[in-house]
Design goal:
single chain; alpha/beta; 21 helices; about 10% strand
């Protein structure tokens, strides 16, 4: 927006000759008056955030279609800003001139853009601070921070759980605040600067608590006393990236231009394996785009699409077990005060029955539709298309636990979960629970705490978990208190079994299986203080989730403290987390 305002001033359309409005509820009539005025008087009109005014988009489309060159002032221009949105009128896109404003690719290009943009490029601003040497160093650190937080997005969930749209506005306001605070205070107010940039300017966009932890951790490297006092303060272990010594504006530009075009993951605090993750994601996006353009026509020699779908449906149907008898389960495992896991088992059976019935009925109906016995509805058509592509149908995902697996692996995983519950029903609660096999994992964790709370008559809201990673072996009996769980994977590190702590990943090994974990309920005040890393546990590698009606995230499960001989910041920058399942 700032670039547009500057362009308008240069063209002589600043001040009263430019009307700007941020769209939202009730802003439609005001926008219409602005457009009418612009058409008659030849002013520029800027309507921002069109994606927030979905209901007004048909009106905007009609207004644009009614614009007539004969009745429109030649100086009139209508500027529209929007995030990508399926509700934005296609005809307006086709008739208008489209511009995108995206951050440059790579740290070097990003830094260069920051130094060539207003206000950093203004000589009076760059050289007018009262604490000039300190300002130049902190300014470079801030610009480097800005480049880092944008470039971390390419690493997917290792970088950020949610891909935030950090932009030039965040940098501009942070730079101005930096200059203002340095001019007004004797000492550099690091805490205030970190709060404003980390919690307000950049942090204001961050909606995930674990992402906020990462953002604040990154900012600590650049807004610190060391960057000011240390003549050779480095940003990476290789010492390729460092804070240049005090110089003029051109010396900083020369340093930026000398940086490598491509950057190693170590500058982000990540392991070299992060590059593999990034390349895999780019490849998956490419293949998904190719699949969107694929026709459904089959070659002459092979099976037709309908035959393939029918065969796959038949194969899955033959492998599906019968639904659980929940009434029998209630009789065998009644609700009792001392054993909450009985309730967990029955509730899990009810949830899996829902999914099992959906899968079975859709597969039977798709076979009938192919034979022409029933109408092929849009839902069944989507199931058929997904099966051809090897993806999980959306109809199933509405009733399913989160999963990013391909169809074949999803079916195998689904059958393994059903067997896990059936074995529990047949032979009793296992000594080691498969934590990945639960539909609603939080209910299982609450059940473990509830058993402990009732056994020792402690209020459950005072309880937390202490964690202990056990040896690689089979466990025949459950623990006296708490639960043994298995099925977790480390993403961004490995488990060093010899030292019994977190260790760096082996080259080209993206994930590592965590041994059996003992989750011990205890009072939060009694949890011992140890050097640990607090690792969030997610159901899938996507890590993103939405808040469900129960108040729980659809993806995040719990935070697990794992022993480490490195500071917590090291693993935060690594993007280390625990996953309940992999994508393969």
């Amino acid at each position: 927006m700032a670039a547009l305002l500057k362009f308008a001033d240069d063209q002589g359309f600043g001040g009263s000759r430019l009307d700007s409005l941020s769209l939202g509820q009730g802003q439609g009539p005001i926008a219409m008056k602005m457009i009418d005025k612009g058409v008659k008087e030849g002013t520029w009109v800027v309507l921002q955030n069109c994606h927030l005014a979905v209901s007004w988009m048909p009106t905007l489309e009609r207004l644009c279609q009614e614009l007539n060159p004969d009745g429109t002032h030649p100086d009139f221009r209508l500027w529209l800003t929007s995030y990508p949105s399926q509700h934005f009128p296609v005809s307006v896109l086709q008739d208008g001139v489209k511009m995108t404003n995206e951050p440059p690719k790579g740290l070097k290009a990003n830094l260069l853009r920051s130094y060539l943009s207003d206000p950093v490029s203004d000589p009076e601003f760059f050289g007018g601070c009262q604490k000039l040497p300190v300002f130049k160093k902190l300014l470079f650190g801030l610009c480097f921070f800005h480049a880092l937080v944008q470039e971390r997005r390419k690493f997917g969930a290792l970088g950020w759980n949610i891909a935030y749209e950090f932009n030039e506005t965040d940098l501009r306001i942070s730079v101005r605040q930096l200059r203002m605070f340095l001019d007004q205070y004797e000492e550099v107010p690091f805490d205030a600067l970190k709060y404003l940039s980390g919690q307000c300017n950049y942090g204001g966009r961050v909606t995930d608590d674990w992402d906020r932890r990462t953002l604040v951790c990154i900012l600590e490297k650049f807004y610190c006393r060391e960057i000011v006092e240390n003549a050779q303060y480095v940003f990476s272990e290789s010492k390729t990236y460092f804070c240049p010594s005090d110089g003029d504006y051109d010396s900083y530009l020369d340093y930026v231009k000398s940086l490598p075009i491509t950057q190693h993951p170590e500058v982000f605090g990540m392991h070299a394996n992060a590059d593999i993750t990034k390349d895999q994601q780019e490849t998956n996006q490419l293949f998904d785009s190719i699949l969107l353009t694929q026709a459904r026509a089959s070659s002459g020699g092979g099976k037709s699409s309908d035959e393939v779908v029918s065969d796959v449906a038949e194969d899955i149907l033959l492998r599906l077990p019968k639904s659980y008898d929940t009434e029998e389960a209630l009789r065998k495992y009644p609700t009792t005060y001392t054993q909450s896991m009985n309730t967990v088992l029955v509730q899990e059976m009810v949830r899996f029955n829902r999914l099992l019935n959906t899968v079975r009925s859709s597969l039977i109906n798709i076979q009938k539709a192919i034979k022409g016995l029933i109408v092929m509805s849009s839902e069944l058509e989507e199931v058929s298309t997904s099966m051809l592509k090897g993806k999980i149908p959306a109809l199933w995902m509405k009733k399913s636990y989160p999963s990013l697996k391909p169809l074949g692996s999803y079916v195998n995983d689904f059958l393994a979960r059903l067997k896990f519950l059936q074995d529990w029903f047949d032979t009793g609660a296992p000594p080691v629970f498969w934590i990945s096999g639960f539909f609603f994992t939080q209910a299982f964790l609450t059940g473990a705490q509830q058993n402990f709370a009732r056994k020792y008559t402690i209020p459950i809201d005072l309880l937390g978990f202490d964690f202990e990673v056990l040896e690689h072996k089979d466990y025949e009996t459950p623990p006296e208190d708490g639960v043994y769980v298995q099925g977790l994977f480390l993403d961004g590190a490995r488990w060093d079994a010899e030292k019994n702590i977190l260790g760096e990943s082996h080259p080209k090994s993206l994930y590592d299986k965590l041994p059996v974990l003992w989750m011990k309920p205890c009072k939060r005040d009694d949890i011992p203080d140890k050097q640990t890393y607090t690792a969030p546990v997610y159901k899938t590698s996507d890590r993103r989730g939405t808040l469900s009606t129960t108040g729980h995230s659809t993806n995040y499960v719990v935070a697990v403290k794992l022993p480490s001989d490195r500071p917590e910041e090291h693993w935060i920058l690594r993007g280390l987390a625990l996953l309940c399942q992999l994508d393969n």
